[in-house]
């Protein structure tokens, strides 16, 4: 069947199916309601939900799938929040505590000097005894070591801790962090933006209102952020929709969110270990419903580290237009391979994945400025390996 015939068949399927009214709304550019969001989540017809989301995806971003060459630094795993869904923070019977020195940070960055890293992504636990100067030194160290890289750092709860240490208004703190090299924020830690979920599984962290206000403050001082949603734990369908609508309302106000990133919950090593892993069905539904509800978000990411590379490939036809990046040394959540074999993907592999998915690879920076390199969009022949003489 030709591409045109396939598109016609999909259109007829949507026009005559259970979402005929939502198809009309999408085609007319009308905003979906809370009730629409619940219907999308509850429908078993993933094909229809994905097809609707793909219409929005292609209207916004065509056939492009974005990726970035990035490196992650998790500068400490000491945390005083005790979230029930987290396996990252140091605890008895779990990971040993650590705090990276500036020499440690420099060494980690020097190990990837040969890679044209575009983004340094830094998040960590909430260490109660790190001084304000640590965070300024951290930014200074990264900027001095990799001056051409964009620094994307600090979740909203980290910023609230940094503000507490600084003893200054959030606007002033953010401007000072910017002066030391902060370029944007990753947007993690949103979890589910309802009081019930907050009180049940992360009561010591910031509230939904605090997360949203911190993000909007960042936008007002000129810092773009992303926004996440942690799904597949104790949240209800209705709470997922409330979360999306709160993000949409904040975006209406400030326009500072770049990307929505659904994060699949993994219970391994957490206090919620009885909850089963998410399925590919749920992962694709989260991508698709997010794309449909967040009509004012430019991008939606299928984060391959969280949902596996094959599902991230499929997600590019369910509303996602981004697959993230090379991800050197990711520690915040579970590793998708038991043997730790997939803690990073080469740039070549990312391009290959996107091409296999039938999309056009586009290398970007964290603000979605397109980067043009010889190998950004196509698979160049691999260079022959040169045997080195034995010492």
Automatic annotation (TrEMBL):
Pathway: Quinol/quinone metabolism; menaquinone biosynthesis. One of its GO terms (molecular function) is iron ion binding. SUPFAM superfamilies: Radical SAM enzymes. Binds 1 [4Fe-4S] cluster. The cluster is coordinated with 3 cysteines and an exchangeable S-adenosyl-L-methionine. Its EC number is 2.5.1.120. It catalyses: 3-[(1-carboxyvinyl)-oxy]benzoate + S-adenosyl-L-methionine + H2O = 6-amino-6-deoxyfutalosine + hydrogencarbonate + L-methionine + H(+). InterPro entries: Aldolase_TIM, CofH/MnqC-like_C, Elp3/MiaA/NifB-like_rSAM, F420, FO_synthase_su2, MqnE, rSAM, rSAM_sf. Its cofactor is [4Fe-4S] cluster. GO terms for biological process: menaquinone biosynthetic process. Keywords: 4Fe-4S, Iron, Iron-sulfur, Menaquinone biosynthesis, Metal-binding, S-adenosyl-L-methionine, Transferase. Residues 65-295 form the Radical SAM core domain. S-adenosyl-L-methionine binds at residues 85, 191. [4Fe-4S] cluster binds at residues 79, 83, 86. Radical SAM enzyme that catalyzes the addition of the adenosyl radical to the double bond of 3-[(1-carboxyvinyl)oxy]benzoate, leading to aminodeoxyfutalosine (AFL), a key intermediate in the formation of menaquinone (MK, vitamin K2) from chorismate. Belongs to the radical SAM superfamily. MqnE family. This is Aminodeoxyfutalosine synthase. It comes from uncultured Armatimonadetes bacterium.
